[in-house]
Amino acid sequence: MAEGGAADLDTQRGEVATLLKTQLRKGDTWYLVDSHWFKQWKKYVGFDSWDKYQMGDQNVYPGPVDNSGLLKDGDVLAIKEHLIDELDYILVPTEGWNKLVSWYGLTEGQEPIARKVVEQGMFVKHCKVEVYLTELKLCEDSNMDNVITKRFSKADTIDMIEKEMRKLFSIPDEKETRLWNRYMSNTFEPLNKPDSTIQDAGLYQGQVLVIEQKNEDVNDTLPGLHFFGFNELYHSNGIRFLLCTQTLLVKNSSYSLPSYHPYSNSYDYSDQSRQSERSGLCGLSNLGNTCFMNSAVQCLSNTPPLTEYFLKDKYTDELNEDNPLGMKGEIARAYAELIKQLWSGKYSYVTPRPFKTQVGRFAPQFSGYQQQDSHELLAFLLDGLHEDLNRIRKKPYIQLKDANGRPDKVVAEEAWENHIKRNDSIIVDIFHGLFKSTLVCPVCSKVSVTFDPFCYLTLPLPMKKERTLEVYLVRLDPLAKPTQYKLTVPKVGYISDLCTSLSNLSGVPAEKMIVTDIYNHRFHRIFATNENLSSIMERDDIYVVEDTDHVVIPVHLREKYKQSGYNHTSTPLFGQPFLIAVPRTLSEDKLYNMLLQHNQRCLYCCLSGEMETDEQDDESSQDQELPSENDNSQSEDSVGGDNELENGVVGPQNSTKGQQTSGHNRKRLFTFQFNNMGKTDFSLIKEDTRQLIQKCFTLTTIHLCLWEQDFDKHESMEYKPQKKAFFKLKDCIELFTTKEKLGAEDPWYCPNCKQHQQATKKLDLWSLPPVLVVHLKRFSYSRYMRDKLDSLVDFPLRDLDMSEFLINPNAGPCRYDLIAVSNHYGGMGGGHYTGYAKNKDDGKWYNFDDSSVSPASEDQIVVSVLICKSHRQQVLLHFY
Prior knowledge:
- The strands form 13 sheets. Strands 17, 38, 42, 43, 44, 45, 46 and 47 form an 8-stranded mixed β-sheet that branches. A 7-stranded mixed β-sheet has the order 6-5-9-7-8-11-10, with helices on one face.
- It is globular.
- The protein has 880 residues and is α+β, with helices and mostly antiparallel strands.
- 19% of the residues lie in helices and 26% in strands.
- The protein contains 16 helices and 47 strands.
- Keywords: Cytoplasm, Hydrolase, Nucleus, Protease, Thiol protease, Ubl conjugation pathway.
């Protein structure tokens, strides 16, 4: 059996591995597990076939399931924003969670983080664990300053929300009520479909909902009609309401707010909607983390040939509603309607909820209100528009041919002709180009040449070769504070590189260092020198302990107290654990004093008298064996007992070395006990000044109490990163066209060898489209770490000559002007998207920031392209 009566490690490994493959089913409950803890558990049970060398090692025992790294400070229910699946947490089904908790327990004071599986999409159904619940702000129309925040599932209905609000605001059952959706500070729309889910109704994170009670003394008045089918009514306090009136049905006219009728899929407009005078200068209101969509749409909206195509209704003759790969023409219609509103010149901003709803119907990943990737939305939109507008009604089957040594010109023309036989649309006309791909087999030297179409050019940025890590150095001197260092280490390096870098700054020999990861007051991991630095994540607390020839023991700290209202005692972990070096032959009194001395600089306790240390000569004592668990003479208390402390303050400033006292006579500041198996119910040490502990130390655990941590900062912490690397766009394209060797997980099937080979691959540009979409990848991402690439890229606003990058000898001049930039500010999984675009009518640049549109100078555009702190950046270039 494994730890604490749990199933053996092979059983744990097998059962959890099977359960992790469970299919998602609507309504099922899954649980979040901190990936930090889960990674430690995998190491302990030998989950991965390549990582079994520490299987069963008590030094990597994970302890109780601990999700503190996922939780907001001081909240046992709310999780942090922008957590990423597999990088920050692991999802396990109910049965898997129950097994893990039965084997290891759950950290005291924590609650399970349970989430429901919901179904997203309308035509394309897609199950997903709803990690983030939708937080809604609820209030009454009579007091909108009294806001109550509640979390709901996207599967919850409007009726459920209304019932919850009636309960929260103590509204009598006999009172009639209705709900309003409040957005853009003073604009309201009715929520009159009680069976609609939060997702269907388009409610987003932070949305304000207002509940109104029927007022018998007030009658509605019929407002005038908005030309686009909306009623406009201004309440006595100036609040504006938008009511669709395609079929006007006035009911319950005794409400204090205006009457309304069923929701339509028309766009809603704010009270500023008639202020804009120029086409295209219209913002898009944020529906809740939809800035990614707004940025992409504004960039595409300012692509002249595509926008003219929709404004002139040319798309209506080319709608392909029967294309099985398309969206039944719905995406094209929704986009066309949105473009017409943006370019009508009548509105300062519009609310693109119907467009987003249509996108979510066919691409469930965009149906929610989490932050998404602007580039992924743009890629989906271009592909969706292409299939909805494909002029090919019946795609022919085409047998692909190998180049077989034929001239590139012949093979390229053949590839393009084959492409347009199946794909012919306005999107192909404007955005599609052609790559040349060359693969060479390393065994038989077979050369395979293909020409493949592309819709956007994804360019890598040169990778940083180094990274910085912040670590704490703990020296042997117990009175020395830990010192924080900032190290520069190779990005693809080893723990030994970390030790070498720290040695250069501290003077401590690299071979005398123990590198540890402290998590939730425990030694989460002790690293081997040959482990990869990639195993250290950004949020890890790394403590490097100066090693010694003595036995090194990990020490954990616990606080003992009685819980209010309960009879039992609680002993939660606190503070930072540490390592202590002790000789193999050691008395209990001596060990106590070593621990006391180690914490001398940060212990502040009440005591009658001064802190004393024991300088007895251990050699004069007689060796004794540790008592067994069945030894009747063994004390039932921990070492030192639970004596209460008397008056007097002791600390670093008034401790004195050399004073002696008997372990039986003095009052102990703390108790401790050994714990070989990682739990606290192991045999205790009797309090006996003559007892010796000889040759019994392994990497055990000792528990203390009372800790107040502080540290010094080394001058390296003042280090500021060097000026960001500056690259030209040419550098990115050259990196893109560099020959590379395929990875072992992505081999190429060689038709000569009849097996998969790690071939060399080279991409080249053969032809470029009239409008070139360039996507700059600013984040490198792996399962265990993420890294932002904040290099500067020199991107000209006009006259970008791409001819030198084309290998087609007949390509001719190829120059581009910049027409739009989509920027993302902030880190991965969060931040904010904006866009810069050049208006096709007046030729001026504007900044599009959700509903706000403002003029921008060319200097601003250059700054944005060069130094925006983004992880995704895309630009649209117009050929001339």
